[in-house]
Amino acid sequence: MSAIVEAWKQFICRACGLIYDEELGDPDSGLAPGTRFEDIPEDWECPLCGVTKVDFEPFVQREAAPSCAPVGPTQEPGIVVVGAGLAGWAAVEAIRALDAETPITLISACVGNLYHKPELSVALSRGMTADAIVRESANDAATRLGVKLYTETFVVGLATGSHQLRTTRGTLKYTKLILAQGAKPILPPEFPPHLCWRVNDLAGWSGLQIQLERKPQRVAIIGAGMIGCEMAEDFAKAGHKVTLIDRQSLPLGGLLPAQAAVRLKASQLKCGIDYVGGVQVKTITDLGAGVKSIITTCNVVMEVDHIVTAIGLATESRLARIAGLEFERGIKVNPATLQTSSPDVFALGDCVSLDGMACRFIEPIAKQARAIAHVALGIPGDAYVHAQPIIRLKTRSLPIEIHGAPCQEGEWVVVEEDLNYLVMHQIVKGQPSSLLRVGSNKAA
């Protein structure tokens, strides 16, 4: 008589949202398929953000209630969500956790499949494909959550007074509207769109991945911020020749003190990444046969096969302007309720600004979604309280972690330093503010 095998469980990282599946394991970090969560060593680290096992909690995907039937736009108006990225689906999940009846319509400019966006900056070296990254198809998620789904549909107008949203598929009435439109990569005029990859979503990443899986190639990444540095290491580990280009003389120069940035540059060099700093791109031209030329303002010339821009993100203001919503580096929202300047319109994720600052982190999204769901449904719940998330760079060769929000006025002071590990405090007005850890303290 065979023993009864316990069902496989999943656990979600509270910091970045990665899901560990016992059945699949995590072979890249030494966990064979079938490794139970309780058998994972306590010092095992999340392969995306570097937190340890204690920061994971059980994950149970919500099953659809029998009453959750998709509701069309000609029926009773309900909640409309714009955007099917992490933020849009998080809002839908949060609403359904509280209410199985309210009609929900989700508008997506893309196909809307569910995937974990932070995986895009580590997926190439792990040999992942777009199909492997997708967790759940949009249609399956819509069925599970009882959502009327419009894919490849664009919003062209918003009238908050009459509660109407105009789309390329017709006009929808809403009782509450949730904007989760995200942000788009910045592309200066001197960067021809047809010559530059923008890896901010699965579609953009998938196109580049198909090109890079053919053979080792020369890739220039313009922008040495967090995303640029993470992609540079990922592409280099996948066997490509990577050049990282930035206006700053050191990578992550706008965030890290010089002592830390120098270590990061040295680590990148060991990975085979060439860093070209203190330069600005002047022109990008197509030389034919798939080769592109990059010329800087100081006349440095580079020839590469692919160019990836990672200069930064910006929220599209068109819809907010049409609707008369307050906008400052993003859609301005109430920091406690995530309501915009129009009471029945909410926003969350990359498209919002809190006290004039963009909020482009994964960790707060689930909390923002829960706060919106309670207010939109009129159910008492905790207000959203924004806290600066821990910044973790997904560069496995040199872990970097920042607690707090570094500022220009602060002074960085070394607390601990050796060849492999650096700890610094930023002092603001005589008090320790941010904490920075670079490298690994093996002794600890």
UniProtKB/TrEMBL annotation:
Q: Which UniProt keywords apply?
A: Electron transport, FAD, Flavoprotein, Iron, Metal-binding, Oxidoreductase, Transport
One Pfam match: Pyr_redox_2
- Please provide, alphabetically and separated by semicolons, the GO molecular function terms listed in this UniProt record: iron ion binding; oxidoreductase activity
**Xref: SUPFAM superfamilies:** FAD/NAD(P)-binding domain, Rubredoxin-like
EC number(s) on file = 1.18.1.-
Q: What does this protein do?
A: Involved in the hydrocarbon hydroxylating system, which transfers electrons from NADH to rubredoxin reductase and then through rubredoxin to alkane 1 monooxygenase.
What's the protein called, per UniProt? Nitric oxide reductase FlRd-NAD(+) reductase
Source organism: Pseudomonas fluorescens
Its gene is norW
